[in-house]
Write a structure and sequence with these properties.
760 residues, alpha/beta, Rossmann fold, Helicase, Ruva Protein, domain 3, Zinc Finger, Delta Prime, domain 3, 6 domains, 7-stranded mixed sheet, 33 helices
């Protein structure tokens, strides 16, 4: 005869009811249905996917991710109350692989006997190690259990990728102040689970204080409210009065989301370091205070500040690392809480110090050591104490202290690295003081490199020699950095959606094309080039890129002649969301034509991005020539001649300015949302061909021919002599590039006469 199973007794039921009554207020007030749930409208509001799935009982695996007290576990229990599936709960803090196996066995048994599904809820899922998560994965994958996880940590880092890929992730946000007030009012008025049967009066400012300090955490709010009500005796009328004093005693410390091993830790220290790097002392103090308030180790903060003192300040202020070191040493002697003064002093010093990351040059040198062949130490630098007589080691070494200013140019790098530049002084703080000296010494070093080759070998060097050319290219003033700055600025003014179709009308080498490709993973990019070499160069940049992501290259001397592209999509159909123009509007006479054609291929409301040098604002020889090269009166007349030259309407390539281009855009129906001008200064070596082109009077378009009518014959000769003296010299060449973001307005909206110009 089988053993009968006894159901729950009256004593069991009474014990369970007593437990419910004695549970904390936060547990008693936990919502049981979606209608009781407060907040998180972005995922659980009417019509949202998660709400529809819960109501239809058609759930797939889920992960709820968000700060404490925002409703992750509550949503799981609402699902448990709603679903027809069997619901099993595990807490990852207490459970192990054996608990997972028992849950899976129970799920298999229920599926076999009754066909009932099983939902397995794992609270604090980030506490499972990799082996425990791996043990769960096969049963989620084959559908034995529907997995629901709750975590305060970023699941993309704390949950294994296979489990993440099989789950839909919902991120919960901190509750709003109004959400928290709603929860508090419910707790005070609910007669069964809350204090509805009690006579409780809470002052508005006291409730505001509880809501503010709870900081989006419903559990913290309810715990504080429970403490306030339960510990405050009623007055003569039997009313429990919660005023500001009681509220402050009930929740004295704001709950700060911070986990020393989780996202909050790394995100907060990242915000702190970036605030220091960005020279924002207010933000730096805020993030520092948050870390100290949350219990972060001050020694960890000092270590990060010591790194920043060299990485981001370095020689711009050599005292930065000394100040941080002194503050760290003082903190070790003083400790908390007084040591907060030293933390704050170090942070403020770093925030306001001039910035330079020039010490990163070391890592350029390290990569060279790792990737290039090992270079032999030059003979004159080798140790002369042992092998001077036998091998000549040390012969030819020039002792710097024997020379003026304790420096003499000579070779220090290995032969195959001659001309390589690693360190570039910034123009900030202390480092700016010796920047010019470093650059001048490098120029002399270049000359020393030529001389050290010996008279016979000098004849083998030409301006195209790879060693010399490498040096010259590096000395040309960071041209690539200027181009990157122009590109990045343009893409901040022109919004490019992930699904956008972009047309780069003057692709050239692809400066804008490849950035557009990166920004449109679900769209497409068309690049117009004018010759086969540009097309080949574009194709060779990323030969292994997915063909679907490659830009469609259109070869056309005049892009408007290209009727379609490889995909068969016509240009003239208003297809593109964004059109880019770089250095295409050189002449005022063609600006209207090109912009009109760009508008023709834009969809209504599409964006036009323009990068264009403004000749009138560019470099002029009158400011390039040394002060002693011309008499003052001749220099003045030369400047006046250049002013006339750049305003001559007969020279459409020169005689236009920013306002002219903005006017053309306005007339063609474009609204300029923002524009800017970037000053670009590069190191340029003046070559003989430049001199010949400028001074050739037989060419009508030459520089000297154009200014000749404004100068006497003698003054022309003086200018010619001064310009010829520039040959072979390195000069700083200045130009201004206009960056424009504008939208084709088909609504008839008014033109903004003064479009905004954001500062850099």
């Amino acid at each position: 005869m089988g053993k009968k199973t006894r159901g729950p007794s009256l004593l069991d039921w009474a014990a369970e009811e007593q437990l419910k009554k004695e549970a904390p207020l936060a547990a008693r007030m936990r919502p049981r249905t979606l209608d009781e749930f407060v907040g998180q409208e972005h995922i659980i509001g009417p019509g949202r996917l998660l709400r529809r799935a819960i109501q239809a009982d058609q759930l797939s695996s889920l992960i709820f991710y968000g700060p404490p007290g925002t409703g992750k576990t509550t949503l799981a229990y609402i699902i448990a109350n709603t679903t027809k599936a069997h619901f099993i709960t595990l807490n990852a803090v207490l459970a192990g692989v054996q608990d997972i196996r028992r849950a899976v066995e129970e799920a298999q048994e229920r599926r076999r006997l009754s066909g009932q599904r099983t939902i397995l809820f794992v609270d604090e899922v980030h506490r499972f190690n990799k082996a425990q998560q791996d043990a769960l994965l096969p049963w989620v994958e084959n559908g034995t259990v529907i997995f629901i996880g709750a975590t305060t940590h970023n699941p993309y880092f704390e949950v294994i990728k296979p489990l993440v890929s099989r789950s839909r992730i919902f991120q919960l946000k901190p509750l709003t102040p109004e959400d928290l007030r709603t929860i508090a009012r419910r707790a005070l008025t609910d007669p069964e689970r809350g204090y509805g049967r009690w006579r409780v009066r809470i002052d508005p400012d006291a409730l505001d204080h509880l809501v503010n300090v709870a900081n989006g955490d419903a559990r913290a709010l309810l715990n504080a409210l429970e403490l306030a009500v339960e510990t405050t005796p009623p007055d003569e009328e039997g009313v429990i009065h919660i005023d500001m004093t009681v509220a402050e005693e009930s929740i004295q410390r704001r709950a700060v989301l911070y986990d020393k091993e989780g996202d909050a830790h790394f995100d907060t220290i990242s915000a702190f370091i970036k605030s220091l790097r960005g020279s924002d002392p207010d933000a730096a103090l805020y993030w520092l205070a948050k870390m100290i308030y949350a219990g972060e180790d001050p020694h960890y903060i000092f270590r990060r500040m010591l790194i920043l003192a060299s990485e981001d300040i370095g020689l711009a202020d050599p005292q930065a690392i000394a100040v941080v070191s002194a503050c760290a040493e003082a903190f070790d002697r003083v400790g908390l809480p007084e040591g907060q003064f030293h933390l704050a002093q170090a942070a403020l010093y770093l925030a306001i110090a001039p910035k330079s990351n020039s010490v990163m040059a070391y890592f350029d040198a390290l990569r060279t050591v790792e990737n290039e062949r090992e270079g032999e130490v030059p003979t004159h630098l080798k140790d002369a104490s042992r092998d001077r007589e036998g091998f000549g080691h040390g012969q030819g070494y020039l002792y710097p202290h024997a020379y003026r200013e304790h420096w003499v140019p000579q070779q220090y790098l290995p032969d195959h690295l001659q001309g390589r530049i690693f360190y570039r002084p910034s123009d900030q703080g202390y480092e700016a003081r010796f920047r010019e000296a470093v650059e001048r010494r490098r120029e002399a070093q270049l000359a020393a490199m030529w001389e050290s080759a010996g008279a016979a070998e000098i004849l083998t060097y030409t301006p195209e020699d790879q060693v010399t050319e490498r040096w010259l290219q590096r000395a040309m003033g960071q041209v690539s950095e200027h181009l990157a700055r122009q590109r990045d600025r343009l893409f901040t003014l022109v919004p490019v959606a992930r699904h956008a179709l972009v047309l780069d009308l003057c692709a050239g080498t692809g400066l804008l094309t490849w950035e557009a490709v990166r920004r449109t993973p679900e769209g497409g990019v068309w690049a117009v080039v004018t010759d086969g070499r540009e097309a080949d160069a574009l194709r060779s940049v990323y030969p292994g890129l997915d063909p679907l992501r490659q830009p469609r290259i259109v070869l056309s001397s005049r892009w408007t002649e290209a009727n379609d592209v490889a995909t068969g999509i016509p240009f003239g159909s208003g297809l593109f969301d964004v059109v880019l123009l770089r250095e295409a509007l050189t002449r005022l006479s063609v600006q209207q034509t090109l912009i009109s054609e760009a508008r023709r291929v834009l969809r209504p409301g599409g964006w036009l991005g323009i990068l264009q040098s403004v000749p009138r604002r560019g470099q002029r020889l009158s400011t390039l020539l040394p002060s002693e090269a011309l008499p003052a009166e001749v220099r003045q007349r030369l400047a006046q001649a250049e002013d006339a030259l750049w305003t001559d309407a007969c020279l459409p390539g020169l005689a236009w300015d920013v306002e002219d281009l903005l006017r053309v855009l306005r007339e063609l129906g474009f609204v300029v949302t923002a524009w800017d001008t970037l000053t670009v200064e590069t190191e340029v070596r003046i070559r003989q061909e430049h001199i010949r082109r400028w001074l050739d009077l037989s060419r009508e378009e030459s520089y000297l021919a154009r200014i000749a009518p404004f100068l006497s014959a003698e003054e022309q000769t003086q200018v010619r002599t001064a310009v010829e003296q520039l040959a072979g010299q390195w000069v700083r060449w200045r130009r201004e590039v206009m960056v424009i973001g504008c939208r084709w307005d088909t609504s008839g909206g008014r033109w903004e006469s003064n479009p905004p110009r954001p500062s850099l």
